[in-house]
Amino acid sequence: MNVWRLPRLSYQAVNTVKETRPTALITQPDWAKQRAALNLPIVVQAEPTRRDQEFFDHLVDNLPSATQVIYALGEGVVMDAGKYVSMKTGKPLVVVPTMLNDAGAFSPDVTFSTADAYTRIETGAADLAVVDLEIIQSTPAHLRAAAITDVLSVVTALMDWGYAAQKGQLRSEETFSPWGTGLAAAVVQQGLKNAAAIGKGEPEALKTLVGLLCMTVQLDSLLGHRRASQGAEHIFAEAVRMQPDAADVPFAERLAAGILITYALHKLQEKDATVMRSALEAAGVRLKQIKKADILTTLLGLPAYVKRLHLPYTILNDLEANPEKLAEAILRSTLGD
Fold first, then answer.
1. Alpha-carbon distance 230 to 277, whole Å?
2. Which of 7, 70, 218, 264 meets the CB 3.0–4.6 Å disulfide criterion with 332?
3. What pLDDT shows up at residue 273?
């Protein structure tokens, strides 16, 4: 088991970054303005659009030998590409997240996506994360802090971890940890408490979100697995993207739906899901991006999906593919209105 470090954090404007090493910049066209503010001695620039290992290996193979440092400016695939190229080449990595829509800037792994599955590999975290709060504040409200879903998903992940423990279905490395659940629960409490301020883009609240994301990432690393942060809600978020109308829905919005659905599958009442829904909405996360029919179709296929991919045991393993009962669960989740 590897216990990975977090990146060093620096809260500063990107135009104050001082870099003299020959730089490979990995970025996205949307961030041209921010790119111009970074005074970097660039030797090569890449704008990845694919999230598969073959393409990432292409970036590795074409990295100029003069490169001494890699910068990743953007979000999502940019962060994963940066970590992968850094791991393969041994070059230091500086990440500059342009929004807080996931924990990728702080995590020590990357995810490769295929048509119907995903694979995660450990790479180690970036050496430095430069967080420019003004850039994050300038992004659309529904994106800038959507990573709160990675904090609030701890609630349903803990439900599934406990459920698997009660069923005797935990893998040897997934032993239930009281201290781990206690720390995870405290992280969630702070996420719920600060959701509204995070949604407004208040600087201190955004710093709080960064801290909570780092706490979640580090707890996963200390435990040696992700049972405290990922359960049925993450499985749903990955599976629902196979529905054509949901394929382009941002991951955080799919994850938010997964959180509410998982609440309902654990047979909690609508009022319980309402509390979580209020926090998600206060943080700016959109909850009406996935059609009810796509939710139902995805749920019907999840029992077979989790078994085919040999995913960690959750309530989905015992899900009954009954359209009427699942329609009731969707109503309990508050997503059926």
1. 18
2. 264
3. 84
The closest alpha carbon to 273, from 95, 152, 162, belongs to 152
Q: 217, exposed or middle or buried, with CB in 10 Å at 0-12, 13-18, 19+?
A: buried
| Angle, CA of 78, 81 and 85, to the nearest 5° | 140
324 contact partners, CB below 8 Å, separation of at least 6: none
- Cα–Cα distance between 175 and 281 in angstroms, integer? 34
Span 138-195, pLDDT tens digits: 999 999 999 999 999 999 999 999 999 999 999 999 999 999 999 999 999 999 999 9
Strands of the chain, DSSP E: 8-11, 23-26, 42-46, 69-74, 93-97, 109-113, 118-122, 128-131
Kindly calculate the radius of gyration of the chain based on its CA atoms and give it in whole angstroms: 20
The answer to whether 133 touches 200, Cβ cutoff 8 Å, is no
Give 8's strand partners.
128
Count the Cβ atoms, other than its own, within 10 Å of residue 96: 30
pLDDT digits (tens, 9 = 90+) for 304-337: 999 999 999 999 999 999 999 999 999 999 997 6
Which domains are seen in the chain, by residue range? 8-139 (3.40.50.1970), 142-332 (1.20.1090.10)
Neighbours of 118 (CB within 10 A): 14
pLDDT band at 272 (very low <50, low <70, confident <90, very high): confident
Residue 202: phi and psi, rounded to 5, are: -65, 135
Angle between helical axes of 178-199 and 270-282 (0-180°, round to 10): 50
